[in-house]
Design a protein that fits this description.
Length: about 90
């Protein structure tokens, strides 16, 4: 259980499942500035993301805790200007 708390906010999987069971579409958006800062690369982020999806799919209460869509951006406000962000939007 402690391992899962490092990957997701406590209670978030149950909240996603509750929303999905109520008929809502759930999308998770996250800023991963650690990629821009060089703390980890996109491959490591993908590995973490895959692990989170495994955790979200396990257990009776979290069976529907997998979001329908997931978006991540490696932008770091300290390292990028607005022009940099806009220039990358079309990529």
């Amino acid at each position: 259980m402690a391992e899962s708390l490092r990957l997701v906010i406590p209670g978030s999987l149950e909240a996603i499942a509750t929303l999905r069971n109520a008929g809502y579409t759930v999308t998770v958006a996250t800023n991963q500035s650690g990629i821009a800062r060089g703390h980890f690369d996109e491959q490591m982020f993908d590995t973490i993301h895959d692990k989170m999806l495994v955790l979200a799919g396990n257990g009776e209460k979290t069976a529907k805790a997998v979001p329908e869509a997931f978006a991540a951006t490696p932008i770091c406000a300290d390292l990028a200007t607005a022009a940099d962000v806009l220039a990358g939007a079309g990529a």
